[in-house]
Design goal:
This protein is of the alpha/beta class and about 375 residues long. The chain is built from eleven helices and 16 strands. It has two domains: about 5-145, translation initiation factor eif-2b, domain 1 (Four Helix Bundle (Hemerythrin (Met), subunit A)), CATH 1.20.120; about 155-375, Translation initiation factor eif-2b, domain 2 (Rossmann fold, 3-Layer(aba) Sandwich), CATH 3.40.50. Bound molecules: 5-S-methyl-1-O-phosphono-5-thio-D-ribulose.
Length: about 375
């Protein structure tokens, strides 16, 4: 991008997944991409909740930041508002936003963080100020976190003159975060460092985040890529050769089991069968130490028409039953490493994940993350 300052907190692209301006959350409507770049104006809690539920804004870190700004809308003081009334509005808004998407832990994480910051505020004005400050901090930190994560991720990227082939699932780029991306951020940083790459992009049925969003981002970044159906990954591994898989995460349990977009698990199985290292890239805010393993994770079930209807045309016979889990859980045993903003975690994950969360908390945010990685 011409004139881009990599160290600034400004967006690294000509577009932004979300932007707070004058008491309003502007959301790039990802349902319309890549055809149209249209921003939605979300100036009520309901509008923010709808934007999250309908995937106008999506991707775990972006959902968390959007929800945090939703609380800022709820806490905006109206004339002569009493503290108790604003507090009640805040609690109601948090409950409404929390229910929009159950799998991405970043949503609950961001809401809880803002609610905690608001605790004990002595006045409505102070409460409102604290809520907006915390929401803004979450968004600003996400920008720094993703760049730190991307740098740590370079240690798992082969360096060589010929192109490195990467399989990527769903969308984990600037669109899925406040800026820069997680797994796609690792790919992007390698490209910016001069490594030749070829990205095999899973289309990511049913809502085509790979085809619509990841291909769009990769094209703008000038990174060579090809789109394929989700079922083609194993074939590509066997016939073309794949160096590594890089995916994001919606929730990582204390043992390393990882929830991510449906299809991730079968990609990990294919990678295991072909000896391809399978890496998860996620900020520490996606780690849920309260969840012992993946068996307790709530997997969002979405409407069957997302599967049965493509481009407005019904593909299945009327009345066909449809299963539409939006996520699946990849067992930790299939994951070669977890790339975070404090380093690359390698198995066994239990202690490494706890240490990463502690290190991130001790750093007081991504602005002060540790420079060296955690390995093992
Ligand atoms: O349903 P989505 O599009 O919100 O699902 C997104 C994913 O599964 C991503 O891989 C995950 O949230 C990580 S985004 C950095």
């Amino acid at each position: 991008m011409p004139g881009r300052d990599r160290d600034s907190l400004g967006p690294s692209e000509g577009y932004q997944s979300l932007r707070w301006d004058g008491g309003v959350l502007w959301v790039l409507d990802q349902r319309e991409l890549p055809g149209e770049t249209r921003y939605l104006q979300a100036d009520t809690v309901d509008a923010v909740a709808d934007a999250i539920r309908t995937l106008a804004v999506r991707g775990a870190p972006a959902i968390g930041a959007a929800a945090a700004y939703g609380l800022a809308i709820a806490a905006a003081p109206e004339s002569r508002d009493e503290l108790a009334r604003v507090q009640a509005r805040l609690e109601q808004a948090a409950a409404r936003l929390r229910g929009t998407r159950p799998t991405a832990v970043n949503l609950a994480w961001a809401l809880d963080r803002v609610l905690k910051a608001a605790e004990g505020a002595p006045s409505a004005a102070e409460l409102s100020h604290r809520v907006l400050a915390e929401a803004s901090a979450i968004a600003d930190e996400d920008r720094r976190i993703n760049r730190a994560l991307a740098q740590h991720g370079q240690s798992v990227m082969p360096r060589r003159p010929s192109a490195v082939t990467v399989v990527h699932h769903c969308n984990t780029g600037s669109l899925a975060t406040v800026d820069y991306g997680t797994a796609l951020g690792v790919i992007r940083a390698a490209h910016e460092a001069g490594q030749a790459l070829f990205v095999l992009v899973d289309e990511t049925r049913p809502l085509l985040q790979g085809a619509r969003l990841t291909m769009w981002e990769l094209q703008q970044l000038g990174i060579p890529a090809a789109l394929m159906v989700d079922g083609a990954a194993a074939h590509q591994m066997r016939t073309r050769g794949v160096d590594l898989c890089l995916v994001g995460a919606d929730r990582i349990a204390a043992n390393g089991d990882t929830a991510n977009k449906i299809g991730t698990y079968q990609l990990a199985l294919a990678a295991k069968a072909h000896g391809v290292p399978f890496y998860v890239a996620a900020p520490t805010s996606t780690i849920d130490l309260a969840m012992a393993d993946g068996s307790g994770m709530v997997i969002e079930e979405r409407a069957g028409d997302e599967v049965a209807v493509i481009g407005g045309r019904r593909m299945a016979p009327p009345g066909a039953a449809v299963l539409n889990p939006a996520f699946d859980v990849t067992p930790a045993a299939l994951v070669a490493g977890i790339i975070t903003e404090v380093g690359v975690l390698t198995p066994p994950y239990r202690d490494a994940l706890a240490a990463a969360v502690a290190r991130s908390a001790a750093g007081g945010g991504a602005g002060r993350v540790a420079a060296e990685g955690i390995r093992g």
